[in-house]
Amino acid sequence: MRKNLLFSSILFLFVFCVLGLPFTHWWFNGDDFSGIAIAFHTKTWRELFHWFIDGNIARYFYPSHAPDYAPPGAILTNTPHCFGFYYRPLYCVYLTLIHWVFGLWAYPFYLANVFFHALNTVIVFNCALWFVNFLPALLTALLFAFHPQIGFRFGSIVNLHYYIDLFLILSSLLLFKKFLDTRKIFFYLFSCLLFLGALFTRETAIVLPIIIFLGSYVYQNKNAPYSWHTFFNQFFVHFTYSFGYGLCALFYLGTRLWLYPINFQASHTNLLSIVIHSITNLRLRCYEFVTFLYDMCALSWLPWGHKILRGSILAVCLLFFIYLFLKNKNKLITLFFACSSVLMLWPMFMVNYSPRYFYEAYPFILLTLVTCFSGIKLSQYFKTIVLVLFTLFVSMNIVFTYQNVRCRENKLHITHTAITNLVNKIDTKNPKPLVFLSFPIDGFGTGIEAGCGLGKAVKYFYDRGFKNICGIEINPDSVNVIKKICPELDVIQGDVLNMPYEKNSFDMVLSYGVIEHFPDGPHAPLKSVYDALKPGGLAIVTVPSFNTLRQIQYFLVYFDPRKYNFIRKMFKKKLFFFNKKKLGYYVDPQLGEFYEYRFTKKQFEQLCQSSGFEIIESKPIAHIDGLFHSPFRPLLKFKNWDFEVTRLGRIVNYVFSKIPFFHNHMHACVLRKK
Predict the structure, then answer these.
(1) Residue 559 contacts residue 505 (beta carbons within 8 Å)
(2) Cβ–Cβ under 8 Å, residues 206 and 347
(3) Domains of the chain: which residue ranges?
(4) pLDDT digits over 236-288, tens only?
């Protein structure tokens, strides 16, 4: 007992120190700002308790997409039906309590993720010890702690509830086992209480009563041969064990039903749409299933593409697992963990596959594999080979995950530093408002659609002392949403081409990917930016680059027979409208409706100078994006607003980057009004 406690403590410290302590420059990113907004608006204990009444966190994510967005605590005019939202009140409580203690310092939020992830690792280690020796159990726990998907997605503040929810689920199961061993009702009641906490954290735990029912049967008959007769004879005994958990689940569902009554018409429509969507997307779900298999075998580190290589490795792994199961003498225990894994993945079947859902099921998947190994007799020589290979594999995953998290921290730190420098250079003593024509999603978590998508970016600066910040948005619906969220913000509805401000009003204007989308040309929006600036004011403008690689692609399209309409008529295909060069600029796409102009370096610089600007700096940017939008796309993939680049892709990007404007996606200019 003391030995296990010692090793558990060492394992916890190792995971916490490796994944937590080095990354002190962590910052918020993407969806994190939605979670922080929840915590930021909760000022009192009464407002904290209010989350149990208004715990629909879906209303606080992507306000530009949600017409029912409302500030925390606001009276709702239209409430969703019982199963059409995310009711997670404790999630709001967790974020609020951390914010009350640490404010907007991102590192403690990150450490909270690491803390609960390390606790889950320790629980997986102790569970694996039930079936295998120390070293295999340790390697299993380390694989869980440093799974490749952890490297890709770990640390998002908004995902804290996944780690806490899994901790509550595993702790509840451990306490239930303790109850079966001792028959002390205290452990049973405490287990039910933790289960209730898991439900109000995330709805995934709703399947736990079924797992408890199956687990109690398997645990009490682990040494007896399986038979249906025994199962039905003991059915009511094990049903009684799961009864308390069923009551907790009913209490949770009843709370949802009381707060958000069922809209039968909407429920019918929603259920029908889910069924239709699932049927029509069966082929896409197959690709999701393949991705799940990669994650299950911890093969997410494999380079994107290379289907034969990836498929071969995956096939070998699956055949090996099937062999182990067929030779396994503990099939009942293995099947229990396999069924538990499937039950914990129910969000994947209802919506789509996500590594976040995989995280909550992964301990059960690992225990499925562990029981396969424990129930088969292997020679000492073969065991040694397997352990050596497994050790090398886990070691590689530790290095891979650490480097991935380090890379993400560097990216977030660069973004944070750049924005901090931008803010600190502005003198707030004088009325110098900052207007956003557009802002990138990475760093603020602001979705850019028709216009600037101001909500969170403007609010971010406003809360940090820039009370004179203002914004303009062409979409009146978006403006109305912003006014509902933050009526104190100075956001108006208007057109970039005809901004309702006096000339020479602003010290700085940021325009990220805006002026190229005007079919009549970029001169008018750029002239509007010039007029809005004070003399000596700065503008940072980015546009898509018509780089060397795109020029080659543009030329080669002329040799593509699929673009010629007389050939398309022969094969009864939809005719294309060919976008020729317009206003001296290249049009994208070449075939179909107009989307944007693309500019060579010389064209964009001449455009800025002809509009009256002095060019302070002109640079190619977004090289990885350029690689993604090129024939070299198989060298990387884009997932959840992040790029995963292969080693060959990094080499190609490094070589191409040495040639100015060869493959960059965007061209940025820092301009000064003369």
Answers:
(1) no
(2) no
(3) 2-30+105-403, 31-102, 536-674
(4) 888 888 999 999 999 998 888 887 777 655 544 455 555 555 555 555 567 67
